[in-house]
Design goal:
The chain has a 6-stranded antiparallel beta sheet with strand order 31-41-32-37-38-39, with no helix packed on it. It has a 5-stranded antiparallel beta sheet with strand order 1-2-7-4-5. The termini are far apart. The chain has 565 residues and is mainly beta. The protein has 1 helix and 41 strands.
């Protein structure tokens, strides 16, 4: 009898945990009953395979739903669904349409306390070594960037289940220095209002929304519910929603009263919310449609009132104030969109009055959809930006990256006030071996860097250029970074930027990672982030001059360490 009971128990456990599969002839789908005992569900992925709709259902409610290119044979890589919040619950895993010859991967999904590929995590061939990338899947826009009590929070657009864009979810990472990041579980998931498009985050210091339930100040995320972009939100429009956390972002609760701002026009999206100190209210900059930004105000983050609009940029608005030349008594407001072009002007909490035409911010090939941190302490005072680095990473279990954080300044130039960008000072934490040269004459054919090789570098140079010099610059792992003296033009990978010499000198700073070369000219007057895959290139460096001598007044090269080791 005991033996029979044991057999029944084992069969029941297997049925609940992994094996039980029920064909649903009415829908053509297939279901598996699971007892969720582990941390992850692992899914095999094959790029280019037929997309399948997967639903995780608990007590009759869909708690996760996403499309995935399930592998029917050998997968390209594996992705995972964190199920730790559903521990010890019975669930149904369903595929909406099941074709036995194409959906074999559905039967390969399994539970574990780790995810496939973890042993090689951050050591992959194209994994950037000091830029943030997600463990698995696609990332795009930086979202919800906010500082709170010693931690920088970076949320981001994330497809946890594939190499391409889709299933928009908010991923999350935290850092104490903006260089070393710890990726947390995904924060906000698609629901009945839509997938989770871009937005921002604030710390509700005065508890205006009345969400606070403990000693911690509440972190509130404001985002676009992209209606109609997932089956659960069929026929829903794009609206704006909020979610909040009482435990420093570790768990997010979606507000039951969503949406907090209904549909206005077209694909209205990407709310950037700030606390406007002079008027003591929340301000939202929102992309409305057709290069129009709108401004809304609120006392409690829940009810919003329209104030004005301005025709300017396409999506992903950003709004902040900067002192001119560091003068705190002379500040200007910056408004920009996804491409980084910006306006300088005044803002009274309701209306933005531009004092400039649109100004290009960068000259690179991979910059998009940047954001700056809210709530940076006053004693720090920096305005720090992180952008999406649009760099495709083929044959990897992840795709795209974040550019290195930069500090923004507003400086007076001969063209008027302009934003400058330089790497944050915290990069010093990963500086390793240093080589330095001073007051050297570089002749055609010379290379002061001939003895150096490696993958990761920070290069700083001040060059005085003789009248007969045609070109000078660097070759970074086979990639030229060239300054044309006659044109006063900096170029890399077919991208160019005007860089005027100052007293016959130029300054260059270059950050080199496995998938990017970020170039800063004349203390950030030129910002040129370049996406370029360097894994198969040589590891050599070269500094060169053509047509005449270049005086190397200062040259410093740091080898950089990986933030993952």
């Amino acid at each position: 009898m005991k033996k029979l009971l044991l057999v029944i128990f084992i069969a029941t456990f297997i049925c609940l945990n992994n094996v039980s599969a029920q064909d649903n002839n009415m829908t053509g789908g297939k279901s598996r009953e699971l007892l969720l005992k582990k941390k992850y569900l692992n899914f095999p992925v094959k790029n280019g395979a037929k997309k399948s709709l997967i639903s995780l259902i608990i007590d009759g409610t869909v708690v996760r739903e996403f499309e995935i290119e399930l592998a029917s044979d050998e997968p390209d890589f594996w992705v995972f669904l964190d199920i730790s919040e559903f521990q010890n619950q019975k669930a149904v895993l369903r595929i909406s349409k099941f074709e036995p010859d194409k959906d074999k991967g559905f039967d390969s999904i399994y539970q574990a306390d780790t995810f496939e590929g973890k042993k090689n995590l951050y050591r992959e061939k194209l994994r950037p070594q000091f830029h943030f990338t997600s463990r698995r899947g696609w990332n795009n826009d930086s979202n919800g960037m906010v500082y709170y009590d010693g931690e920088y929070h970076l949320f981001y657009q994330h497809n946890p289940y594939g190499w391409k864009w889709g299933n928009m979810t908010w991923g999350q990472a935290v850092s104490k220095d903006m260089v070393h990041w710890a990726e947390l579980a995904d924060a906000i998931h698609p629901d009945r209002l839509g997938t989770i498009f871009s937005g921002s985050a604030v710390i509700d210091v005065n508890n205006t929304a009345r969400f606070q339930s403990g000693d911690e100040k509440v972190l509130v995320c404001i985002y676009t519910s992209a209606g109609g972009t997932n089956p659960m939100s069929k026929d829903q429009p794009f609206t704006q929603s909020i979610a909040y956390s009482n435990d420093r972002g570790r768990t997010m609760k979606v507000y039951e009263g969503n949406p907090i701002l209904g549909h206005i026009s077209g694909g209205n999206r990407d709310p950037k919310v700030i606390w406007h100190i002079p008027t003591g209210q929340w301000v939202m900059a929102l992309y409305l449609d057709k290069k129009v930004m709108g401004f809304y105000t609120s006392d409690d983050l829940k009810s919003w009132e329209f104030q004005s609009k301005i025709e300017c940029f396409h999506e992903c608005p950003e709004l902040f104030e900067l002192p001119v030349d560091g003068n705190e008594n002379n500040k200007k407001w910056i408004l920009y969109g996804g491409s980084g072009e910006y306006l300088v002007g005044d803002f009274d909490g309701k209306q933005f009055n531009s004092q400039t035409d649109q100004i290009p911010f960068h000259s690179g090939n991979c910059f998009y959809a940047s954001q700056t941190f809210n709530n940076i302490p006053k004693e720090d005072g920096r305005r720090i930006q992180i952008a999406w680095g649009r760099v495709a990473m083929p044959d990897m279990p992840f795709n795209q990256m974040m550019l290195f954080p930069v500090t923004l300044r507003l400086q007076t130039t001969e063209e008027g006030p302009r934003m400058f960008a330089e790497p944050i000072r915290e990069i010093k934490q990963i500086q390793r071996r240093k080589r330095q040269w001073k007051n050297k004459t570089l002749k055609p054919g010379d290379n002061l860097l001939s003895g150096l090789s490696g993958e990761l570098f920070r290069i700083q140079a001040e060059l005085k250029i003789d009248d007969d010099v045609e070109e000078t610059g660097f070759v970074i792992r086979d990639v030229p970074v060239v300054y044309n003296v006659k044109k006063q033009q900096l170029s890399c990978q077919k991208k160019t930027a005007t860089l005027k010499s100052v007293n016959g000198k130029i300054r260059l700073e270059i950050l080199v990672d496995r998938t990017s070369i970020e170039i800063f000219g004349n203390n950030g007057r030129v910002y040129m982030p370049m996406g370029v895959l360097l894994a198969d290139n040589s590891k050599s460096l070269e500094i060169f001059t053509k047509g005449g001598n270049t005086q190397v007044e200062s040259l410093i090269v740091y080898k950089l360490g990986s933030v993952w080791r």
